[in-house]
Design goal:
69% of the residues lie in helices and 0% in strands. The protein has five helices and no strands. The chain is globular and about 35 Å long.
Length: 109
């Protein structure tokens, strides 16, 4: 969701997620209509909800916020994506905001 990410950055993030969460590296299909894309995301999220507990899903969201903050700012697309991810992973809005607020005030490492 961050236009500042290079293709190399995107591939690195994708590789990390595949390795960390045991996701299948199958080749991605061509772009789909929005309804089909959302349905696919819901299916993936359903698998994650079934396989991982609330604390693990919250840890995933925290890592996603960390990546989003890596360039020092959160764009509106990143914000929207994070709220969608929280919704799909059944993370409460309060938890999502708490993680965002906590990470936003941490000094850069």
């Amino acid at each position: 969701a961050d236009p500042a990410l290079t293709q190399e950055d995107r591939e690195l993030v994708a590789e990390h997620l595949r390795n960390r969460w045991g996701l299948n590296p199958e080749k991605q299909p061509s772009p789909e209509p929005e309804h089909e894309r959302r349905t696919r995301f819901e299916e993936y999220a359903g698998r994650l909800r079934a396989r991982f507990g609330q604390n693990q899903r919250l840890a995933l969201v925290e890592r996603m916020w960390t990546v989003a903050f890596s360039d020092g700012a959160i764009g509106r697309h990143e914000e929207r994506l994070m709220h969608l991810a929280g919704e799909l992973l059944d993370i409460g809005k309060e938890d999502l905001v708490e993680v965002r607020t906590r990470l936003q005030v941490l000094p850069p490492s």
